[in-house]
Design a protein that fits this description.
about 25% strand, 9-stranded mixed beta sheet, single chain, alpha/beta
Length: about 375
């Protein structure tokens, strides 16, 4: 594993949470730590499944926002490229050497479109579209800069976010793209985001079955006017089995599989058990900073370092110690058996990994409780 970004000029506790070679006990808190064995297991598990299903994997960098992790997924995890959710995130990734990027979102602001066209001169760049005027603006910018931009027409297959209706509305946009200078029609974006965290297997299966029917309708309508989809993209960690087996989707966009957060581990598999093919690899390492009551401890991990939009974090490998409340800089840990002491350290599994990672500057990669690498969260805060 590449150690990366180690420098004697970086001060532990001020610039970085650790140095390579340190023991876990000496890592400053609160910090994001990665169990590298579990991380590598997760990446290899999905790589094998993608190969077996004969589909492509375009991993989602919005999960980790790290050039180093994106490179690892491409070099070792079978990824053909990456997804980014924001233009600025894509700019960071391309600057870091990633040369195949899908912005799985719409870019409509004129200033951003200019940046997008310039970026398309430096890497293969794909973009999602759902508006005729946006297609015109993209074409004009691509022509001005001598760039080529590949476009996926996004259809709304149940998430009720971006995307046009399946069928003729998508065909109309695809035809416009195909006729536009500087643009290339590459296929469809059909991500059913709301299906990912549906708890019951049957509910996810039905949601994706409906999406597959809508995608099939659209693909057939496109074929009727002579348009072929090189890419039919979608899927996430909670549903990818269904899309991979559809004989229709050919590019998966999984992100959280590398880390697995607490909310995803409330999602059930076909047997009714929490999905277990991927392991927890991402933790928030936190210290007990106050213990004035026997049944309650206070840790140094609050809202400034973790996201609670999908629920509170879970204390890893504990049946009785529970994270029960938080404020800006404090977390309340229920300790009914009075086990915790001042300066004890515990691992928290974030409720939602993506926004939690965006709150940090560094990942600390560990193997056998020894720091093996430091990776910057390269695109932290890149929301433009």
């Amino acid at each position: 594993m590449k150690t990366g970004h180690e420098s004697d000029d970086l001060i532990v506790g001020l610039d970085v949470p650790a140095h390579v070679g340190m023991h876990l006990d000496d890592v400053m808190t609160p910090a994001l730590i990665i169990d590298l064995d579990a991380f590598e297991h997760n990446i290899e598990t999905l790589r094998k499944q993608v190969v077996d299903a004969d589909v492509r994997l375009r991993t989602h960098s919005k999960t980790h926002k790290s050039v180093d992790i994106a490179r690892y997924q491409i070099d070792h995890g079978g990824a053909c490229g990456i997804c980014c959710q924001k233009l600025s995130e894509a700019e960071v990734m391309v600057a870091g050497g990633i040369d195949d990027v899908l912005i799985s979102n719409q870019v409509t602001d004129p200033v951003k479109i200019e940046r997008l066209a310039k970026l398309a001169k430096r890497a293969r760049l794909l973009i999602c579209v759902d508006d005729s005027g946006n297609i015109r603006d993209l074409s004009n910018a691509a022509t001005r800069h001598g760039a080529s931009i590949e476009c996926l027409v996004e259809i709304d297959c149940g998430a009720r976010r971006c995307g046009v209706a399946p069928g003729q509305a998508a065909v109309t946009l695809a035809q416009q793209i195909a006729a536009s200078a500087g643009l290339e029609f590459a296929g469809l974006q059909a991500y059913q985001g709301t299906a990912q965290h549906l708890r019951e297997y049957s509910a996810r299966e039905q949601a994706i079955a409906t999406a597959i029917l809508q995608v099939r309708e659209t693909v057939d309508a496109l074929a009727a006017v002579g348009l072929h989809c090189d890419i039919i993209a979608g899927a996430g960690t909670g549903s990818y089995h269904f899309e991979a087996a559809s004989n229709l989707y050919n590019e998966l966009q999984c992100g959280s599989y590398i880390f697995m957060d607490a909310d995803y581990q409330r999602v059930l598999d076909e047997s009714g058990q929490p999905i277990s093919e991927f392991q927890n690899s991402l933790f928030l390492w936190t210290s007990i900073m106050s213990k004035t009551r026997p049944d309650m401890a206070i840790c140094d991990a609050g809202l400034k370092v973790l996201s609670v939009d999908s629920g509170l974090p879970r204390v890893f490998a504990s049946d009785d110690i529970e994270y029960v409340n938080c404020s800006d800089e404090h977390g309340n840990i229920a300790d009914p058996h009075n086990r915790l002491r001042l300066n004890d350290k515990i691992r928290l599994v974030p409720g939602h990994c993506d926004p939690t990672c965006n709150l940090h500057d560094w990942y600390v990669g560990l193997r056998d409780d020894k720091v093996e690498c430091l990776w910057p969260v390269s695109a932290r805060g890149k929301a433009f």
